[in-house]
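User: Hi! I'm working on a homework problem where we have to compare a predicted structure to a textbook description. Could you give me the structure for the chain below?
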Amino acid sequence: MGSNEQQAPTIPADLLGDGSFPLEIVGESRYQEALDRICGGRTRKGHSLGIPASLVLEDANPKDPLAVRVDIGGQTVGHLAREMARTYRERLAAIGQVQPVFACHAWVRGGWDRGGDDVGHYGVRLNVNLTGAPVPQVKAPRPSRLDTILRWIGICVVVVVMVLTLVCALAVYGSLNHV
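Assistant: Happy to help. Predicted structure tokens:
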């Protein structure tokens, strides 16, 4: 039923997300036991786990021959929503990709058990961009003025320590030459 994420090629760059895991999957409610095994069981705080996943074209699916299955650790954990599955297939075709399985990155959240009825279901999101728009490049935040000042102070301290070490080494070397 599942596939091996290590053997699947990585999803084409044109479909790679920006790290915000924008693509939600559906049907996780039917695969809670598998997600529980993948995450190592329920905990009081639950899980927030980044993990490799595979997108598998399910041409032989009797309910929907255009379905796209999502596997993690060789276990099925859900599917792309019907519209997203079609968009995914269209995007693959547009860039000339015919591979039936691609690896991507998933984010699994949920799975808490705080006792009683306070039990959270697992949810899965994928770092896959199906919008067709280029993924914006995320720029590193500009350091604050305080960060810049602290960085310069750190550099100055290192320079002073190096100069003092050099002066001490020269003094010791000079005293050895006078003996």
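For your comparison, note the following. The helical segments are 32-39, 82-94, 145-177. Residues 56 and 101 are 5 Å apart (CA to CA). Good luck with the assignment!
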